[in-house]
Amino acid sequence: MPKHIGLDIGTSNTRMYMRGQGIIMRSPTVVAIDKRDEAVVAVGKEAKLMIGKTPSHIEAFRPIRDGVVTDIEVTAMMLHEHFKLTGALSLFNRPVVLVGAPHNCTEVERRALEDAIFEAGAKAVGIISSPIASAVGAGLNINSPKGCMIVDVGGGMTQVSVISSGGIVRSKAVKLGGDRIDNAIIASLKSRKDLYIGEFSAEMLKVRIGSALPNSKRGSVEVSGRNERLKCAQAIMVGCDDIHLAMSRAVEAICRTITGLLEITPPEIAGDISSYGIMLVGGGANMHGIAELISAKTRLRVTVAKSPMDCECIGLGRLIEKPSIVPGGILYKNR
């Protein structure tokens, strides 16, 4: 019997659900390749630790950018390793995979995702819109005629979707997420304090003292990097106001995306959303102050889902166990 897999391939992290077992894997979407023979050196956490620290013949990078596959071959190699390590792929069994894809992705981008999973060893692949899977995972009744709004703040992009009667009525995406905020922190410290830091340090600052709200009292931390003016290693104290300033433009753009979609939402559904509020999912939902900021900008109640980072994977799992949740079921392609 083939294994049935739910696969959430995000820009920052990949999660895997196996039927009957639940979520069996959470791993950074990073792979390290030896450029001399195109062999996989490391995947996941081990590969992430190698970013920016590899010799010239090894490259550690993310094969998913802004929610879509940028390198089919490397993505396939990464997934193949995941399938083997989790027991989803064996000599006599190939998995059946249900994967989420951005609602607004092009046919070319959907085909790239499909090809990567088939090359990784899958027997059959089904693709469903990520907002639908996330809504199911968050516990929303997607088949109700009462409309709902779900906002997924991911690593590479933010998707805002209005769902009603089993389908997506309106959807909008912006290429702004956790990674773009990290880059904004790096650029801000480099220009304002002459300190060039790495991705890990930027993410640490965002999590520990960053806030979407101004005047948050989250203290300060010491961060190390390279002084661009003196060309030497340096450690300085960075305060929460510095990080908020760096983050503010990105989080304001996310809020504008939400309000922009509300403006074109049919009035009957807008009335439902005003009653039930907005559901916030994705890794960015854990950002300090983001729910409060969105609520202030939209004047709507904002609820952060339970386990927001796992919502899409949980939803894929529920759809594997009960495909009839989606009107018409789920179509799989074989190869």
What can you tell me about this protein's structure?
A hairpin with a 3-residue loop joins β1 (4-9) and β2 (13-18). The protein has 335 residues and is of the alpha+beta class. It has three domains: 4-133 and 312-334, ATPase, nucleotide binding domain (Nucleotidyltransferase, domain 5); 141-175 and 259-308, 2-Layer Sandwich (Nucleotidyltransferase, domain 5); 178-247, ATPase, substrate binding domain, subdomain 4 (Actin, Chain A, domain 4, Alpha-Beta Complex). 36% of the residues lie in helices and 29% in strands. α2 crosses α3 (107-119), α4 packs across α10 (311-321) and α5 (178-193) packs across α7 (240-263). It is flat, with a radius of gyration of 21 Å.
Strand content: 25-35%
The count of DSSP E runs of length 2 or more, i.e. the number of strands, is 19
Strand order of the largest sheet: 3-2-1-9-10-19
**Major beta-sheet overview:** 6 strands, mixed
Output the CATH class name of the largest domain.
Answer: Alpha Beta
Quaternary structure state of the chains depicted: single chain
Number of helices: 10
CATH homologous group name of the largest domain: ATPase, nucleotide binding domain
As residue ranges, the low-confidence spans are: none
Mean pLDDT equals 94
Tell me the CATH topology of the largest domain: Nucleotidyltransferase, domain 5
Radius of gyration: 21 Å
Give the topology, please.
Layout: E1 4-9, E2 13-18, E3 22-28, E4 31-34, E5 39-43, H1 45-48, E6 58-61, E7 64-65, E8 68-69, H2 72-86, E9 96-101, H3 107-119, E10 124-129, H4 130-137, E11 148-153, E12 158-164, E13 167-174, H5 178-193, E14 195-196, H6 199-209, E15 220-227, E16 232-239, H7 240-263, H8 267-276, E17 278-281, H9 290-298, E18 302-304, H10 311-321, E19 332-334
Parallel strand pairs: 1-9, 9-10, 11-17, 17-18
Antiparallel strand pairs: 1-2, 2-3, 4-5, 4-6, 7-8, 10-19, 11-12, 12-13, 14-15, 15-16
